[in-house]
Amino acid sequence: MDENRALDHENGDEEMVEASQIRRRAITNNEEPGSEIISIERVFEQKPVPTWREQLTVRAFVVSFFLSILFSIIVMKLNLTTGVIPSLNVSAGLLGFFFVKTWTTALERTGLLRQPFTRQENTVIQTCTVAAYDIAFSGGFASYLLGMSEIAANQSTEANTPADIKNPALGWIIGFLFLVSFLGLFALVALRKIMVIDYKLIYPSGTATAHLINGFHTPEGSEIAKKQVKTLGKYFLFSFLWGFFKWFYTAEDSCGFQAFPTLGLKAYDNSFYFDFSTTYIGVGMICPYIVNASMLIGAIISWGIMWPLIGNREGSWYPRGLKSNDLHGLEGYKVFIAIALILGDGLYNFVKVVARTLPSLISTLRSKINLKTLPIQDNNNTDTSIATSYDDEQRTKYFLKDQIPKSVAIAGYIVLAIISIIVLPHIFHPLKWYYILVIYITAPVLGFCNAYGAGLTDWSLASTYGKLFIFIIGAWAGSNGGVLAGLAACGVMMSIVTTSCDLMQDFRTGYMTLSSPKAMFISQVIGTGMGCIIAPCVFWLFYKAFKDIGIPGSQYPAPYAIIYRNIAILGVDGFSSLPKNCLVLCYITFAAAVLINLARDLAPKKIARFIPIPMAMAIPFYLGAYFTIDMCVGSLILFIWECIDKTKAKIFGPAVASGLICGEGLWSLPQSILALAKVNPPICMRFLSRKDNSRVDTFLST
């Protein structure tokens, strides 16, 4: 995400996703993408490469379907709580390998196995699963879609008229996703050879995923994978049972372990406490140390310093007695200062990626014209040139074997665009057909720029383009439904740009595993179709089971819904709605984000790795500090483990983290079912100060 952003600015080792910024697909191990020394294709030389039809198996899609449900639930929960989503590709890859390997091993023992499990089929599972659960994130359920709702509108006194509100409903959400989610697949598919072979773009996430899959299917890698799956299963069970145990003590929102004042009651009032969430301990183990440290710094600056000081200005900077969620009060400072930090970081990185991308693109085009050679080649390593050339020869041969006709791509994009131009204005009345036409004309260009930049830097700027179109379409539409039009335009643009970039990542993975581009494309289409049904159903389950979704301070606050809506309000109304001195603080915060990023890029690497990341700092500004404590506990666990046994920590750390995330995440499903059935927890565990406890005892004794 991003719709999201990879917050590891230094390399492609790990991933943290923030649901309002840049999403990076799957960084799955700690090797640099180009660290492959021996010839991988020599290892698999004796194994026949299946045809594209043989790569698309029924068992692959059955496994993908169930994994898609599992990971959609997990991503939805993370999205609705904090918007911090780590890479789940390790667990998706491990579980996909484990289930099909178990299936084929059982059939082999009975003599019924007709087709062995190959890395190409594994790639199809990975592609289909990730495409499906990506919809749970890129569908905007916790950002632009929920930002359209009455829940988000009620938290503001501006733009809360019926023209700017559209409440969630399962029917129109599924229809909307089907209309916009497939366009990105057709936008750039005709350029796959140019991006992957001619320009030799690395796509570090796709490359790392390919290393993971290739490693699974070597004899040594298979044994390690089995041990990793066993470890994942053990911590999955622990996390699931822990979530079940915690549920008994949560009769009310402020009850249970998630309201445990571990650092004292005063710290608890300022959201500094450990809430015993195995999910975010696992997230902290996956995210880089600098990401977790940055969030903790952001929490201290905001909830430890800024908000208490601004709160003391009540009656001077803003009226007394306002509701806690009134944007004319303290809540306004929290929301708009967080937005300024996000936009400052996003704008800086947009300019940075464009500045890197354009010279490289111009250089490669000149190289092709003048030298008639393949651009972006790296032949400095003479020790590996023979192995690399053999691997590239084999990979290029199979990548060019199954072609997807350009006419299909062009016709598919045009037909889908025409259908959505006709239908979308009936779903969102303020979104006029000519707004959509402008989006569809510009989307392929922006999609190409985004995919090219991601191939070089592993950064997708999809959410930045989305926010840009919130402003453009919102201002164009004006006060008559401009907020709703801007949010809908954001969703359309983000879906196209995100999906087209993800498809190129998948083509890179397929290229390195000798998977057919046709099989990859079909798998992506099927996975996207699954996601367009699974993700809305999962969201609807949460939406109906928990009545406080989108409410600040609740179990599922969906923080980016109100942030996206207020970006739209800024586009329509300007800065007139901001509280006193808020605009000045926003300017300062925006400038600080740019300067911090500049310092990170200009400082030597030894120093830069200790400079915090503004995007990570922004997340707790609005949401609170509690989840940063959990994530720092996860970092501490991993750090101690690495000090004791670095090799085991590197191999099994991602499996432990994935188990912790998936276990408590899956508990959300039975928890939702219990809530729908009106089965409530029997106990409320609450903590009081000594003074309040005496008052309660006195009251009960009378």
TrEMBL record:
Q: Which Pfam families match?
A: OPT
Sorted alphabetically, the Gene Ontology cellular component annotations on this record are: membrane
Write the protein's name: YELLOW STRIPE like 5
Could you list this entry's UniProt keywords, alphabetically sorted.
Membrane, Transmembrane, Transmembrane helix, Transport
Q: Which PANTHER family match?
A: METAL-NICOTIANAMINE TRANSPORTER YSL8-RELATED (PTHR31645:SF76), OLIGOPEPTIDE TRANSPORTER YGL114W-RELATED (PTHR31645)
- Family annotation (NCBIfam families): OPT_sfam
Transmembrane intervals: 56-78, 84-103, 124-149, 169-191, 289-310, 407-428, 434-456, 468-499, 519-543, 582-599, 619-641
Return the similarity comment.
Belongs to the YSL (TC 2.A.67.2) family.
Q: How does it sit in the membrane?
A: Multi-pass membrane protein
Q: Tell whether Membrane is among the UniProt keywords.
A: yes
Q: Where in the cell is it found?
A: Membrane
Q: Which GO terms describe its molecular function?
A: oligopeptide transmembrane transporter activity
